[in-house]
Amino acid sequence: MQLNLSRPRRRNLISLTPLIDVVFILLLFFMLTSSFIKWRNMELNVAQASTSSIQQEDKVVRLNTSATGEALFQDQAYTLDQLPALIERLQQDSIQHVILQPHDDNAIQQIIYLMDALKQHGIAQITLNTD
């Protein structure tokens, strides 16, 4: 009586070295293709109904925005490129406080662009009206 004992099969092991190489290549790829943005903070005053009284000695201007992101002042639309001319006009009247009334359809980024342009051109105080 002869027993047919088969050799135990040798299991093929998965080598971890190529797997680790692939993981590092993917990590490198995502690090190189991601965008690095320098985040900045912007101070923001939000007008509320209970605190809407503004000091009378400050000259205040209300600036509305259109649905397309243009600034509206005295029924005239200003794009971001035309905004410096408007700001110079406001500064000639020694206005340093702007109340910004955004349109309901404005994207937040459009409002930020407008606020940033106002700050860059010397408007000291910007209040965002949310009513």
UniProtKB/TrEMBL annotation:
Subcellular location: Cell membrane
UniProt keyword terms in alphabetical order: Cell membrane, Membrane, Protein transport, Transmembrane, Transmembrane helix, Transport
Transmembrane segments: 12-32
Record flagged with keyword Mitochondrion: no
Domain of life: Bacteria
InterPro entries named among the record's database cross-references: ExbD
The keyword Transmembrane is assigned to this record: yes
Gene Ontology terms: cellular component: plasma membrane
Predominant place of localization: membrane
Annotated GO biological process: protein transport
Membrane topology category: Single-pass membrane protein; Single-pass type II membrane protein
GO molecular function, one term: transmembrane transporter activity
Coiled-coil residue windows: none
Family in the record: Belongs to the ExbD/TolR family.
Protein name as annotated: Biopolymer transporter ExbD
Organism: Nitrincola tapanii
